[in-house]
Amino acid sequence: MRIRIESLSFEAVLGILAHERTTPQRILVDATIDYSYTPESFIDYAKVAKHIEKVMQEGAFHLIEEALETLFSTLKKNFPKIETIKITICKPDILPNCRVCVEDFRSFL
Fold it and tell me: Which fold has domain 2-107?
């Protein structure tokens, strides 16, 4: 089974520039999660989305790459049925003419 969370939007401190360390900015996250579904056991996508937002807001990460590493480990810990996960974190407003994103993938198989 595959869960897709698209354009999860919230504000968080993320970045190395002085103003990024003090002022939360808009963050967009996409996540694709594969897992083995059974009627007795499933992954609640609302809890996954809330987890992502909470980790990002509490983390106040300097680099998107650091945020990705933390999300991979905490999502797997909190949702052990995850087999693979792809996450894209975007800072849509950091540059005036584009959206900057970093994406990575993990397999836990």
Answer: GTP Cyclohydrolase I, domain 2 (3.30.1130)
Least Cα distance to 33 among 65, 74, 79 occurs for 79
Whole-prediction pTM:
0.95
Structure tokens at 84: 């693979």
pLDDT digits (tens, 9 = 90+) for 12-59: 999 999 999 999 999 999 999 999 999 888 999 999 999 999 999 999
Residues 6+ apart with CB under 8 A from 2: 32, 33, 34
- As given in the structure block, the two tokens for residue 77 are 């810990």
Q: Specify whether the CB–CB gap between 93 and 26 falls below 8 A.
A: yes
